[in-house]
Amino acid sequence: MRAQMITSLLRARPVARRIAPTFARASSGQVHEETFESFTERYVTFFQQAQDLFEVQRGLNNCFAHDLVPAPSVIEAAVRAARRVNDYATAVRVFEGIKEKVENKQQYQAYLDELKPVREELDERLLAAARSDNEELVLEVFEQEGTFNINFQDGLGNTALHYAASHGSTGVLEYILSHEECDVDLTNRLEGATPLHLALRLGDPEIRVLVVESLLDAGANTMIKNKHGQTALSLLGPNDTEIRTLMRKAQAEANVSRDDIADDDDDEDGSGSGSGSDED
Length: 280
Known about the structure:
Blueprint: H1 2-12, E1 19-24, E2 31-35, H2 36-49, H3 53-65, H4 72-84, H5 88-101, H6 105-114, H7 116-132, H8 135-143, H9 160-167, H10 170-178, H11 195-199, H12 205-217, H13 241-279
Antiparallel strand pairs: 1-2
Helix pairs in contact: 1-6, 2-4, 4-5, 7-8, 7-9, 9-10, 10-12, 12-13
């Protein structure tokens, strides 16, 4: 069904033609036309066989130079080729090229939906950046909004934030927390642990405090229990006085916020009653 939808979108695009541009054959002096299917097959094969970055980029330049939108199979082959030659930036630019080629957001979203499996593979790069505190890589990921899921969970249920917290990746941590869709309280599958639970295991005291403070500032819930029934607060050791203070402060601020919301609701109800009394 998705493939049919993509095909229909391609055919509906005003400037895209199902017949690829003509190519001159020097040997015969004749001009031949290449069908869309032949064009697709040719570039899928090309990208599957490309073995170096120059070759991949040359293929992309030639492919996107034509007055048509490449089929999803071509895009997938191109992205995999970029990953094969270990150039994530080129993989991201493939999506940028598609975004410029299509006529509207609906068409672009259709491509993203069709290419979801390969996009999830790209999310693995975000996890790798978090594990290694690779700020350059995470910025490359962030360059193309919409092609990655900041809350992507791997087979263990860990997100990039879980890995940044557990590895003490302070640089990448701040970028992840700055993303407006970042869920700071997701739990993993193995232990039901949040990033805050994992941060408390860090061996370096200074980094542990820094990571915990960043998570708390981002609104991490200190009362979530893991599969062992432990909250982050209950995992603290007797010497974790600074972190205990930070958590108590975060809890107090959370309570104040809830009280403020309750007071606002009461004020609204009271205002309504008062207004009615005045009218009487």
